[in-house]
Amino acid sequence: GVWFRGGGGFFSLFFxxxxxxxxxxxxxxxxxxxxxPPAGPPPPTTHITMTTTEAxxxxxxxxxxxxxxxxxxxxxxxxxxxxLRGVHETDGYPVRWPADxxxxxxxxxxIGCWIATAGDxxxxxxxxxxxxxxxxxxxxxxxxxxLPAAKLALVARLFVAVDARRGGLATDLLDRAARAARxxxxxxxxxxxxxxxxxxxxxERAGWRLAGSGDGGWIAAxxxxxxxxxxxxxxx
Length: 236
Description:
Elements: E1 2-6, E2 9-14, E3 17-22, E4 49-52, E5 67-71, H1 77-91, H2 101-104, E6 110-118, E7 128-136, H3 139-145, E8 152-160, H4 169-183, E9 187-193, H5 197-205, E10 209-219, E11 225-232
Parallel strand pairs: 8-9
Antiparallel strand pairs: 1-2, 1-4, 2-3, 5-6, 6-7, 7-8, 9-11, 10-11
C-alpha cells in the first residue's frame, strides 16, 4: 500500500482502492459537514510525505531456484492444455485448436512425455512452463529420411509457455527428448513447418541436421498444403 500524510489526516492508496481517514480515527465524510476553517492567517502549504511498503512478491522465472524437467503425469494434463491454449492464441500452434487438447498432447505410440515446471515443487498442481513428447516415427518420415522406422523416435508436441520463453527451456526439453531416444537405442528425428523460422533456428543451433523436406500432410494457416523440413538429432 501507499500512505500519504498531510494536513488533517492520512490517505491510503492500496491495490486500486482509495480510502480517506480523518484525524479522529474514522473515515472522513458523512454527517456534520466539513470542519470550519482555522482562525488566524492561512496555514502554510501542506507538504505531503510518502512512505511505500514492499509489494507482495510476484513469480519471476529468474527468481525460482531451478526449472525442473520431469516426466508428465496424468494430473498434469489440464495445466498442459492451459499452457498450450496460450501458445495457440499467440503463435497459432497448433494451427487448429483440437477438440480434445489433452488427447492431442498424448499422441499414439508415445514413448515418453516430459514437462518443465517452475522451482523444485513436485505437486499435482505444478505450473507447466513447457512440454515435449517422444513417439514412434511413422512410415512417411522414415521414407523421407531413408531410415528404418523401427530405429527412429519422433520429437513432438514441443512448446514453451508464452511467459516462460527466452530462458533456454525449449533447448532443455529438446535435449531431454533426444536423450530419452538414445537411451532406447533410437535416433531422434523431428519435422517442422518450413515456414517456422524461429523453430528452425532453434533446432539448428542445438545441433540438429537438416535431412530433407516434404509434404506435411495438413493444411497450413494460409490455406495451402504445409511443407515440412525433416531434422535428425545430434549423435551422442
